[in-house]
Amino acid sequence: MMINSTQGSYLTFSAYFDSGLLKYLFFMIVMLLYILIVCINLLLIVVICLNRSLHEPMYLFLCSLFVNELYGSSGLFPFLLLQILSDVHTVSASFCFLQVYCLYTYANVQFFNLAIMSYDRYLAICHPLQYNSQMTNNKVASLIAVSWLTPFLLVVLTTSLSVSLQLCGNVINKVYCDNFSLVKLACDDTTVHNVLGIVYMFTVIFGLIILILYTYVRILHVCFSGSKQTRHKAVSTCTPHLASLLNFSFGCFFEILQSRFNMSSAPTILRILLSLYWLTCQPLFNPVMYGVSLTKIRIICNTSGFGKR
Fold it and tell me: Which of 102, 106, 115, 124 is an S-S bond match for 208, by CB 3.0 to 4.6 Å?
């Protein structure tokens, strides 16, 4: 039976299982995780916005990163909470595509933000004398705007192509909606979608990764040939960024691996955890990592009464 994805059809999630009364425990765990993510990201956003000493490019890019964590979490957690308590795990096709758009824009904004932050660290460490003239307020605002507007426009293209598909099935083997699962349900020829996905991967995503790798090669070169103070500055500011980048990249790799290959032989709970890793760990990992690692933020949080005195 063919289903027009733009009409009032419903999709079913097969990854959910009957957990009995344990579903209330799962609900509490997920809700507490969501509350923690919202609170810690909001705290750091408020700290950066209200303290003029943090109105520097690095912290403004961090603020953009934390806002994106809230955006991505809001596209997943409320939906998960409803599905955990529900006895019937279905969702309308229109909402499914909305969630796809939300989660994919989150992932793309994340990569754009991380790339811009690596460029900022490159200028600060490799060209410290030109940093203030290069990283002006207007340039910071422009970079943040690009990191948000570009993904939102690009994902509109890929999502709109998927919306027009005729679906021959309605079962998604996950706990949330993703574009590749929807494309696999299509009756139509999906060659255009696959080619577009590959082109996008090799141009936009790999382009950002190459930019990040280039900046870190330059930073490492300066570290090995520079003074002890330069090395300390590079380590203190680049370590949390590099940890964030690796954590998110591994999470995305797990998700792509699970989407592209048959993982039915793996335990259900493992597949669920791997598919959720990039959406649940990163919004918690980033604020904790930066809040602990960056001295300025840590000192302000402590003196403001948010931490131990």
Answer: 115
Specify the pTM.
Answer: 0.90
3-class SS letters over the chain = CCEECCCCCEEEECCCCCCCCHHHHHHHHHHHHHHHHHHHHHHHHHHHHHCHHHCCHHHHHHHHHHHHHHHHHHCCHHHHHHHHHCCCCEEEHHHHHHHHHHHHHHHHHHHHHHHHHHHHHHHHHHCCCCHHHHCCHHHHHHHHHHHHHHHHHHHHHHHHHHHCCEECCCEECCCCCCHHHHHHCECCCCHHHHHHHHHHHHHHHHHHHHHHHHHHHHHHHHHHHCCHHHHHHHHHHHHHHHHHHHHHHHHHHHHHHHHHCCCCCCCHHHHHHHHHHHHHCHHHHHHHHHHHHCHHHHHHHHHCCCCCC
